[in-house]
């Protein structure tokens, strides 16, 4: 089996991401005594990114792209985008939990600083990989390498963060309007994931209707749904007329972590972020010309 190793900016970006993510989770594990929740999540982000990048490098090293069960025009950049978002989240969560106001021993604190620095470097490396791999004007490539494809990744990631905030404790069960917002998050997340899976598995031709029209119609539907959720969620959480609380409760300032009011605010902000992402997605989807290679 021939080994193919061609030096390129893309390869160097992947190698940098591989090394940085490896150092981040290795040092964090060596530090020990990390909180089970946030610590395990950050280690998962780095380890998952490292393992996926190593797999991609090995597949391209041995020239196995044609034997892979996924579209190699779509999978690497999709993974790189998810890895960038995961490492970015770890770069924010890790220092907030283990550096801010930490009374840990100096050696453990130093380990946490090193992990945070290399997590930030891994994020930059993955962003560089996405930037190098994304489609250029007039270039024939996979859908996931285009702006709408990358936006789908961001939309699903933001939805996952919303699910984390909204489900522990459950924040949507005291009013039907909030249950509607939860339905919006679930429907849009599922459809976006279906699109990503169809592209990665190269099954878009199996649809009984043109894929381009489906993308445009779905983007329009998602914009309308998220616009309604962007309006409804704050009203029924922060408007006293609808049982909400406008001011941040006093007990929120005296406890560690985020209280329910903080989580409701975070969901409101993330809902607005996803609305903007879907709006940009709609603009791109209506302009994108699909060319079959």
Automatic annotation (TrEMBL):
Limits of the MARVEL domain: 5-138, 143-290
Subcellular localization, as worded in the UniProt entry: Membrane
Protein keywords: Membrane, Repeat, Transmembrane, Transmembrane helix
GO CC annotation: membrane
Transmembrane stretches, start-end: 12-32, 38-63, 75-96, 108-128, 149-170, 182-203, 215-236, 265-284
Membrane topology: Multi-pass membrane protein
InterPro entries associated with the record: Marvel, MYADM-like
Name of the molecule in the record: MARVEL domain-containing protein
